[in-house]
Specification:
Layout lengths: L15 H4 L1 H6 L2 H32 L4 E7 L17 H9 L21 E4 L6 E2 L3 E7 L14 E8 L4 E4 L1 E4 L4 E7 L4 E11 L1 H13 L4 E9 L2 E8 L5 E7 L6 E5 L9 E9 L5 H4 L9 E2 L7 E4 L24 E4 L2 E4 L10 H8 L10 H13 L8 H4 L1
Parallel strand pairs: 3-16
Antiparallel strand pairs: 1-12, 2-4, 4-8, 5-6, 5-9, 7-8, 9-15, 9-16, 10-11, 10-14, 11-13, 12-13, 17-18
């Protein structure tokens, strides 16, 4: 700068004054300070927004490895490749535990389980029951022609409840694989109790769901958005390989893969984001009748009146429960509701009737919550129950 140029305290990166030499020769001395400051301000703001842009990409768009692949197999074919863990004894044991009996042959709708025709009754009924005893019920599954089923596999859900006491407990359902089921209830409170049994899905409907789960992973689908130089293309995306030319995105950390149909013109590297679109119908009209709401999640008509349960005969109540820690054995049932409050039979749980109790417990702690939509309900309840000054955006809470 010239000698008569006023001294200005630099707020710019080193070397910026060299870039202003030309301006120093063109602008009057009284305007140089203001002009230099404005130029520096523009540069600093530009660098700041550039930094924000980089940080945005780092947080929300961790750069994946991008490959171009060609996929020929149909989406209706299950993947044949397996990992060593999938072939391990642990997985085999888990598959045996969750194995579900299949219907015999190709049943028609009339031969499937009908919630209106099933019946149940108490095994060895007694005049009086007491808290701590068990109640057993025998259920016979029948089809839409009222014929007894000869095989099992139906999904029944049973509960024992007292609406007036706001109490309830689930029953344990045992499938005898011959069309009959034994349901066992543990009597945990005194008063009048009622039995309620629902047919969630017939065995025939379950086989349809199982087959579609294994052969139609495209039921839930997404769309990928590719943008470059003002041009945009939208293609279908999913976690499995679609048919045709694909863009393969590999997470650098987890090595998980994500696939999108390759755009007609734009390259795979122009992918910006994807979003959930919806659920595709993958059932036929013949299959829809097995999944209709009239035959799914329906209460079985029962003829058993309310049962009177007396207080425990002995003075000895439930055993003292240990403090809640991981690895404790889980009894059946694991707990019950009484007066609309959950009581655990696993361990001695704490009660938090007031928001202040929750705040006292959580003060100074960091809680990480990982899970699905059920856990989100817990979080939503906590968010509504405890008044908070800071509102967390919904996409973080999910």
């Amino acid at each position: 700068p010239r000698k008569d140029t006023p001294k200005v305290k630099s707020v710019c990166p080193p070397g910026i004054w060299d870039r202003l030499c030309v301006m120093g020769r063109l602008l009057p001395p009284r305007n140089l300070k203001c002009s230099a400051f404005l130029v520096c301000l523009v540069l600093v703001i530009g660098m700041f927004f550039r930094f924000l842009k980089i940080e945005w990409k780092m947080i929300f768009h961790s750069h994946p490895t991008i490959n171009f692949v060609q996929c020929v197999p149909s989406i209706t074919q299950s993947q044949s490749s397996t990992t060593p863990w999938q072939n391990s004894e642990e997985v085999k044991m888990l598959k045996e535990l969750i194995a579900w009996p299949e219907p015999q042959g190709t049943p028609s709708f009339n031969s499937s389980t009908s919630p209106q025709n099933c019946d149940y009754w108490i095994i060895n009924p007694k005049a009086n029951y007491s808290v701590g005893e068990t109640l057993e019920v025998l259920l016979t599954a029948r089809d839409h022609q009222s014929k007894p089923k000869s095989y099992g596999g139906d999904f029944f859900r049973a509960k024992l409840h007292s609406p007036r006491l706001k109490a309830g407990v689930t029953g344990s359902v045992k499938d005898h694989q011959n069309g009959t089921y034994t349901i066992t209830f543990l009597l945990l409170w005194p008063g009048d109790v009622e039995i309620s049994i629902r047919l969630i899905f017939s065995s025939e409907a379950i086989q349809i769901i199982k087959r579609l789960r294994e052969t139609r992973p495209d039921k839930v689908f997404f769309r990928g958005y590719f943008q470059n130089k003002g041009k945009q293309e939208i293609t279908e995306c999913n976690m499995y390989k679609l048919n045709g030319s694909l863009c393969e995105f590999i997470d650098p950390g987890t090595k998980e893969k994500w696939y999108c149909m390759k755009p007609k013109e734009l390259p795979c590297s122009s992918w910006v984001y994807h979003k959930y679109v919806g659920i595709r119908k993958v059932t036929s009209e013949k299959e829809d009748v097995f999944l209709h709401r009239k035959v799914t999640d329906q209460v079985l008509p029962g003829q058993i009146p309310a049962i009177r349960v007396l207080a425990r005969k002995s003075s000895q109540g439930e055993p003292l429960l240990p403090l809640c820690t991981s690895g404790l054995p889980i009894p059946d049932p694991s707990g019950f509701y009484y007066n609309d409050v959950w009581t655990s039979r696993v361990c001695s749980t704490k009660k938090f009737p007031k928001p202040s109790n929750v705040v006292t417990c959580l003060r100074g702690k960091v809680v990480y919550m990982f899970g699905d939509s059920t856990l989100r309900q817990w979080w939503k309840y906590l968010e509504d129950f405890v008044p908070c000054k800071a509102v967390i955006p919904s996409h973080f809470s999910q």
